[in-house]
Amino acid sequence: MTSDLSSGIEVRQTVDWFRRYLFLERSCIKALAGWFLKVPEYETKIGMGYQLWAHAERATELRARLQELRGGHSEANVEPALARVADEILNAPDPNSFLTGWQVLIDRLSEAYRFHLEQADGSANAQEVRILRRILVDIEQSRAWLKTHFKQYSQTWASRIQAFLDSAGGVQGVGIRPSPPESSGAHFVWPDKYVFDERICEDRFENYSRRIELPFEQRRIAEMEIFFNEFYAAGLLATILFDSWSARAPWEFYRDLAHHFWDEVRHAEFGMIRLKELGVQPSRLDLSLFYASQTMPFLHRLCYLTLGLEVYFMPRKRPRVERYGSAGDRRTQLFADVDWSDEGNHVQYGKRWVDYFLTDDARTVEDLQSEIADYLKAAGIDLPEGQLAPY
Question: Domain 11-167 is of which CATH architecture?
Fold first, then answer.
């Protein structure tokens, strides 16, 4: 990478580079949300949840600095060549190609951030220096995760993504620009089923009233399976994130969704960790609520999860935390305690953004919930009055 900069970076150049970084970081959020349902290994899905939130945090920092800079509109002047890079990463033919393309972009972003930091003046560019130092630590952790957990690298696809990046002048747009490869013409589509590998089977869980009557050890395992089953909520949020991408909502909406998504992935991870510690391999999921939501528009899905299911499950949280504390199981109590706190935030997210999207809409939240009930009935979810989940 070359540059004619000798020392320090003027505002116009800073704005241009930060805007390009932001566009690519945000593009990764959409791509990770889409491919979350398609990658089969649940360990990789969990890692993708962490990485999606890392992209959102980096995007938030970049965007905040752009808003402080002259001419720093965050979405202006994104050139088509850079958009083609994001499209090609998303439209990969298979999970390994997607993960490969994403890794190439992560590597090139890291190089660009490092180059920017080397060119910056410690005084004139002091704020960007602080931001880039934090970002570099974070993105190096992302690179380390990929190198540790992703082994089936496709050199062919890596070369293709690199060629698209080169045609855009690289991440910063300062390189020589050869002609791009021909587009494959492929477009990302949702899988017919939420994909997991052969270790996981789809099953139906026992009713809550029966589960709470189980002896302590059996109930603990059953409840950790419920934690692992938060993959249903993570998948639901992945579809909301992806399908709402063109809704022209404030950035804070996508940031909150990304945080909510990451939380649900972590809750599934809580279940995975604790089941394995108890000598049980995670092996089943009840995805009925996920599938029931997929005929709904994204706003209905958001309302269904945050102002329906999250509220419905909330009364179970405190007694669960207290029960594990009384039994001296501090490890499980910790997971249950954090889950309880997170879910309260999720209800607030739902209230904030459902109200936002209903502004200037003739419907109320109650109208939306009535429409959701119709969607559920059409999907074959027929539960007793007042019961929103079968487990």
Answer: Up-down Bundle (1.20)
